[in-house]
């Protein structure tokens, strides 16, 4: 296996009905590959997926030029007063240029949404806006909405500035998949739409570029910084020096399985994006950590072969040996 890390930059064209989460995007990439090249090709790529040999690992989408702030206890992010501590809680993004800095410098570089989503040309902020979109289901017998399953309902919607640039990181096994294949199926998803309500225009984007992503290993690096939700449970990480927020993923099928009577998957627990995972033994840089879940009927009754991305692309980070 020959793993390489790439960064794809997307330009959003319409609002998002589903957040650009790495495990969700991985699932849609699998479906797009299946539709473009056939089920046999997808099965071939998924060989060994739950045995630590993923063909592809996908990050969340981040404002271009930024990474998610590491999830750490407050004592790592020393602030002099309560006002600074409150301001620090709103700073969710780390500039890519600061990714190899010592932890105190890295955390000091954190930026808020207004900064991360600003446009370099004019400096104006383009912070995403979350709203509710009302949907109606029409009773074909009466031609109107009504009660129960025909009652109007609302769904969340995230609107970015048109053309907002988003970075997504990929770890690719180049012995099984070529970069141009990922570019093609990612562009196809952008045309048809990502996530919920793509059929009514949500989730459309264009692929601006895709390039190799190089990161310098910090001095005294000893832990992993995740760029997507991951499944670290049962792996060899030091619980006393690992930090994450618990994420419960209530997954559901897309594509044709979304139209069946059993679209929902088994809920699973993941470590949220930005987790810091310290190995129990010696540290060595890796392109990803985690594990592949499923493929044995545990995740879906509609499709027993369903897998869940429990892997995450990672960056090395230097965690102080002694906690404050």
| Count of helical stretches | 6
End-to-end span in angstroms? 40 Å
Helix residue percentage: 10-25%
Biggest beta sheet summary:
4 strands, antiparallel
Which ranges are low-confidence, i.e. pLDDT below 50, for 5 or more consecutive residues? none
How big is the Rg?
21 Å
Provide the domain count: 2
Mean pLDDT: 87
| Tally of strands | 15
The rough form would be described as globular
User: What are the secondary-structure elements, in order, as H or E?
Assistant: EHHEEHEHEHEEEHEEEEEEE
Strand order of the largest sheet: 2-8-1-9
Strand portion, in percent?
25-35%
- Give the structural class: alpha+beta
Task: Give structural notes.
The structure is a single chain. The protein contains six helices and 15 strands. Helices cover about 15% and strands about 30% of the residues. The chain is globular and about 70 Å long. The strands form five sheets. It has a four-stranded antiparallel sheet. By secondary structure, the chain is of the alpha+beta class. Helix 1 (about 20-35) packs across helix 2 (about 40-45) and helix 1 crosses helix 6. The protein has two domains: about 5-125 and about 160-315, no CATH class; about 125-155, no CATH class. The protein has helices spanning about 20-35, 40-45, 80-90, 105-110, 115, 180-190; strands spanning about 5-10, 55-65, 65-70, 90-95, 110, 130-135, 155-160, 165-175, 205-210, 225, 245-250, 270, 275, 290-295, 305-315.
């Amino acid at each position: 296996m020959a793993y390489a890390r790439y960064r794809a930059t997307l330009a959003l064209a319409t609002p998002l009905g589903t957040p650009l989460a790495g495990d969700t995007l991985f699932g849609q990439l699998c479906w797009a590959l299946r539709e473009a090249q056939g089920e046999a090709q997808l099965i071939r790529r998924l060989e060994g997926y739950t045995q630590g040999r993923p063909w592809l690992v996908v990050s969340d989408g981040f404002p271009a030029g930024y990474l998610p702030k590491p999830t750490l206890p407050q004592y790592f992010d020393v602030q002099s007063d309560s006002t600074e501590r409150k301001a620090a809680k709103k700073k969710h993004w780390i500039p890519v240029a600061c990714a190899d800095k010592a932890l105190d410098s890295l955390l000091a570089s954190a930026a808020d949404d207004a900064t991360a989503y600003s446009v370099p040309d004019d400096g104006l902020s383009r912070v995403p806006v979350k709203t509710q979109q009302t949907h109606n289901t029409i009773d074909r017998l009466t031609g109107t909405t009504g009660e129960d399953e025909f009652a109007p309902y609302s769904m969340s919607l995230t609107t970015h500035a048109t053309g907002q640039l988003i970075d997504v990181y990929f770890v690719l096994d180049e012995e099984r998949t070529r970069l141009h294949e990922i570019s093609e199926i990612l562009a196809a998803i952008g045309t048809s739409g990502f996530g919920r309500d793509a059929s009514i225009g949500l989730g459309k984007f264009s692929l601006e570029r895709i390039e190799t992503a190089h990161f310098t290993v910090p001095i005294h690096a000893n832990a992993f910084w995740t760029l997507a939700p991951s499944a670290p449970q049962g792996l060899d990480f030091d619980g006393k020096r690992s930090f994450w927020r618990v994420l419960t993923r209530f997954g559901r099928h897309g594509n044709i399985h979304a139209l069946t009577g059993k679209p929902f998957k088994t809920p699973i627990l993941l470590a949220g994006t930005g987790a810091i995972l310290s190995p129990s033994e010696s540290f060595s840089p890796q392109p990803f950590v985690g594990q592949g879940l499923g493929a044995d009927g545990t995740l879906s009754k509609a499709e027993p072969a369903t897998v869940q991305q429990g892997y995450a692309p990672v960056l090395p980070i230097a965690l102080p040996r002694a906690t404050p």
